[in-house]
Amino acid sequence: MGSSGKHFSSEELNLIIKPLRETDMTLPGIARRMGCTRSGIAYINRGYKIRIYNGKRSSWTTDKDRTIDLSAANTTMLSRTPHSPE
To answer: 73: which residues sit within 8 A by CB, 6+ positions away?
Structure first.
């Protein structure tokens, strides 16, 4: 049976959102850096609509000027599952 993860803090969300918006880091790369799963990063990306892939995994668009209100985030749904190194 799976276990639920820990919740991301606002600071951790900022550390995830920044490279999603401003770099070409892959989702697995961001996940390794943050010590969580790729699916957690993907969930945040979808929830905040940061990278829009338009059906293509290798290219995306972002709106770097759009403000993201983290205070409105339901951080109980943004959980972190520890990543096991392979």
So the answer is: 10, 13, 47
